[in-house]
Amino acid sequence: MVNMGELFAHPRIQNIVMDLVPVDDKEHHYLLEVGDLLFARQSLVLSGAGQCSIFLGNTESTVFESHLIRCRLNKTRVNPIFYFYFFKSPEGRRAVEAIVEQGAGASGIRGSDLVKIQVLLPTKPVQDEVASFLGALDERITLLRETNSTLEAIAQALFKSWFVDFDPVRTKAEGRQPQGMDAATAALFPDSFEASELGLVPKGWPRLAFTDTVKIIGGGTPKTSVPEYWEGHIPWFSVVDAPVITDIFVIDTVKHISSAGLNGSSTKLLREGTTIISARGTVGRLALVGKEMAMNQSCYGIQGKADDAYFTYFSTYRLVESLKQRSHGSVFDTITTETLRGVTVIYPDMSVIEAFEVVLSPLMRRVKENLQQSQTLTHLRDTLLPRLISGQLRLPEAQAQLEA
User: Fold this and answer.
1) Nearest-angstrom CA–CA distance, 73 and 367
2) Who contacts 136 (Cβ-Cβ below 8 Å, separation ≥6)?
3) Which of these, 153, 52, 156, 151, lies nearest to 94 by C-alpha position?
4) 66 Cβ partners below 8 Å, 6+ apart?
5) Which of 12, 26, 91, 116 has its CA 20 to 30 A from that of 373?
6) E strand or H helix at 105, and its extent?
7) What is the DSSP string of 138-179?
């Protein structure tokens, strides 16, 4: 085992670079190879310029465009994946930020400055071990996210089958039993349709304004001038906390408030299973509350009157898609209670909603558990990364923390 505590050298990056291609180089120099590092030349925000990514390859020839700087390292001396993680570490980010130049409305870096950055240079075996460990962590995180993407697609498909395409009703109307559904659940669905202003709908399922099927809750912001209102134990949701759509749940937030902040403002404590929709600013972002939390006034909390969680969440998802279609795909700038009242939905019998909750519960529980594990691994990776990169932490110690 290589001694991770050894003193690392700090050469300039040009000492390990094979190729740093300028924008006006020959055409064939734009082809990427596995392990090439790519740096963003410019950004409208300071933190964006110099962001590093790594090309891991595919089956086709791939080129890069002029807003990127390609940095090809000498693979006989160094491991490019190690340096990808180096530039994601605080030390690497500080090194890049030191060469960022401010321009008119944007910030940027130049290749001639990039090659002068000093970098860590542990031995190649150390680089390989660190890159392998961090890469394995990222692979586990990616697998969890991909699994959630699959599970979310299954949940969407089931909701669409039951409540949009009405497959169980259609099948029963044809004199057949719905496949993949037990007899007790199938019996909950009607066996015929009736005409309505929305077309043929399951018999007995009323057409209601969306607001007649849910309870809508407003949010609020405790005064920032009162320190006692903040840094408490209650998560406080704003749109920056909205998960990617495939993760569905929000289980933590950037900011937290205290009980005094909750009681001293118009925000309210949302129970687990409440749907949150952003109504102003970045409109239409959704989250399903995974633990009790409050939210700001730019959002609505939505709770199903059937005391459900998942039916209301996916109904709200469909509502947002409907609003986008009304706007011809453009981004609508606000959602009000009148907006929600103006959407008509076909509301099933509550026994069907309850059955949907039962069927979906194991799948959604898995989504939440995967999200929790992904966030734990991400936090662990971000905590271990700078210590591993700098040699302050030995790999066996990092592996022990991972297993724990």
Assistant:
1) 39
2) none
3) 52
4) 23, 41
5) 91
6) none
7) HHHHHHHHHHHHHHHHHHHHHHHHHHTS-HHHHHHHTT-PPT
Residue with tokens 């001639």: 112
Is residue 337 a part of any domain in this protein? yes
Give per-residue pLDDT as tens, 55-88: 887 667 777 777 788 888 888 888 999 999 998 8
Look-up: residue for tokens 């043929």? Answer: 200
Range of the domain at 240: 209-347
State the Cα–Cα distance between residues 249 and 371, nearest whole angstrom.
8
Neighbouring-strand partners of residue 63: 31
Q: Are residues 112 and 217 in the same domain?
A: no
Q: How many CA within 13 A on the CB side of residue 188?
A: 16
Query: Which of 75, 95, 121 is where one domain is finished?
Result: 121
Contact assessment for residue 262 and residue 222, using Cβ atoms and an 8 Å cutoff: yes
Residues 237 and 337 in one domain: yes
Instruction: Report the SS3 class of residue 16.
Output: coil
- DSSP structure class, residue 241: G
Of the ranges 66-80, 193-207, 332-346, 381-395, which is most confident? Answer: 193-207
Question: What is the residue whose two structure tokens read 């110690």?
Answer: 397
End position of a domain, from candidates 104, 121, 138: 121
**Class of residue 114 by CB neighbours under 10 A (exposed 0-12, middle 13-18, buried 19+):** buried
Task: Please check whether residue 265 is in contact with residue 163, taking contact to mean a CB–CB distance below 8 angstroms.
Answer: no
